[in-house]
Amino acid sequence: MRLKTVLGLFLTLLFLILFLIVVPLEEIVLDLSRISVLDATMSLVLYTLSQVVRAVRWRLLIGSVSLRDCFLISSANVFLNNLLPARTGELSWFYYTRKAGVSLGLSVWSFLIVRIYDLGGMACVLMLSFLYLKAPWLVIPACVLVLLLALSVPELHRLIPRKGRMVEVRTFLKENMSGGLSAVVLMLSVITFVLKFLSIYLVTSGVWGVDPVRSLVAFTGGELTTVLPVHGFGGYGTYEAGFLIPLKMTGVDLETALKAGFTAHSFLLFASAIFGLPSMLFLHTLYRRSP
Predict the structure, then answer these.
(1) What is the reported pTM?
(2) Of 66, 32, 74, 83, whose CA–CA distance to 232 is shortest?
(3) Is the Cβ–Cβ distance between 233 and 8 less than 8 Å?
């Protein structure tokens, strides 16, 4: 863990040095000042909605925890996961759900299931966006196929062998998932992803003019870095790399790509702090009073 932490801090330092070499500080300040108050406000509203939808998804998977507590736990987890290097922020999910009375098994498997559906939601949005641009007539059949796949997920327990830890996976799918729940969770994952994307698109497109398709691909690249075993402090360095690479591949110059990635990432970290810090304070007060 120490090695991962040191590596994460090194990546952040390396990124900041590269960023300041390529992008003059006064230029980034000037560009940020061009973001209108309306765009910044709407971005925060969209991000808030994404957090609410995320909480609803957790509530469906963990029925014993109220929607309010799901929102608080999720907000705290997102902020700490964004902030801390080496994925240590993920541990907050298990800590807070344990305090809320959720068994470790349900906490672990629901967490893994949501991460899988997060990836599925990203894949769905990218696939449907590509089809809309290249073959619009395939959009509806693709949606039907995705729905059928989602409905069939719970039946996978029949294919899982009754050996070792696989028994726990089999039991979780059988007892906690249904076809309808699977479809709803995937839909909510898609909505969460789209709302989060729209929130950062508002604060980047108006200044640097990156079109929606390239912004979506870049945003997906940045989000994929959040599942890496190692990332920088606050995610700086790794998130920008995931954001920058797709933009460079589609012809965006290095300076614009760096500024767009840095702004998108900084906004997400700031927005997550708005909800995460009060949520952590409230949770610690709440569970300290619990018997």
Answers:
(1) 0.87
(2) 83
(3) yes
